[in-house]
Amino acid sequence: MPGARRIDWIDAAKGVCILAVVLYHFNQMVLQQIDFGQTAVPTLWSLGITALKPLRMPLFFLISGFLASRSITGRGWEQVRTSRVANLLWVYVLWVGLYWLFIEGVIVPLNVDVAAAGAHPETLTGVVMQLVSANTGLWYLYALVLYFVACKLLQHTAYPAVISIGLGVVLHLVSSLWLPSSWWNVATLMNYLFFFAIGCHLQPLITRHYTRGNPVRFVITAVLTLMALGAAWKLGSMDAPGVKLVLALLMVSTTIDLFALLTQRFKMAMLCDIGRRTLPIYVIHKLLIFVLVAFMPEVLYVEGALGNGVLAVTPLAMTLLIGALCLLVHQALNRGPGRVLFTMPHTFRRVAYRTGLLHPAH
After folding, report:
1. Tens-digit pLDDT profile for residues 2-43
2. Which of 70, 49, 71, 52 is nearest to 13 (CA)?
3. Comparing C-alpha atoms, which of 329, 189, 209, 306 is closest to residue 257?
4. What share of the chain is helix, strand, coil (3-state, %, to 5)?
5. What does the alpha-carbon distance between residue 302 and residue 234 come to, in Å, rounded to a whole number?
6. CA-to-CA distance for 312 and 190, rounded, in angstroms?
7. Digit-coded pLDDT (tens) for 183-231
8. Among candidates 86, 105, 95, which has minimal Cα distance to 138?
């Protein structure tokens, strides 16, 4: 929310969300590709990361909707088309292209097996199709644009909140019940409008009831979350449509209260700083993991108690290291011509202004 005072729990929660994304991809692309034999540590990490699945992206999108609320409900298209739509599309298209060039020019020639890295088209036409269908690891940026535009268009209806949130529920159920698993990219786009719309349209309620946290509500929702997770795990219904929504809402409420309470008592400056700079971590971290894949398996495969000890702390340590390296890379690149990697260049903006496609924000 430009011009508004920063809310610490939002920055802290965003920081945890982006680190959870890095942890998930490190586990998926590195740990799960190594055969550790009978060692239980990787399995425990995978179980914990899986348990966070109902929280990670729902909370991220709810916060994104919360932060976009003023632009959607109180500003005209001409004020937000550049910052909220065009700039995100620019970053999305540019970085998908950079990923393709990196894999094609570095990873493929080195014959590095990047398992779980997603589709890698061999032609530019394939890249364009990947962009449009969101069949890419950077789909979150594309989803943000689609959700913003959808909520902005529905803002002109009689009941924008009801229609936006209701549409989110319908899309979630459709994606869960009828879409084949191979359409994961389409399913992900359909799954999270619900949370973005809640953050957008219930922003006043969230601000009023959650900004300072509620210890009693936190304890109740935390207990309910643990009970629901245990039941869903036991019944094998973690991915059942209604179960996913209930788990996500419980975990999001619990996490917001947790960080609202923590930020009242502690200065979580480092975590808040990470939360204010999620974009560079999001777009850069997989490139670093691609590089790690080349040598991490040999480093991690250590037998005995020492190996288990190293393995127990490795996922968290590597997540923090990758996050820090992303911010250092961003600091080095985000100057001079390098700024075009994270912001639409002024040349493109001027052309768009002159053609009437975009309008300068006032």
Report:
1. 334 578 899 999 999 999 999 999 988 888 777 666 677 888
2. 52
3. 209
4. 80, 0, 20
5. 33
6. 35
7. 888 999 999 999 999 999 999 999 988 888 899 999 999 999 999 988 9
8. 95
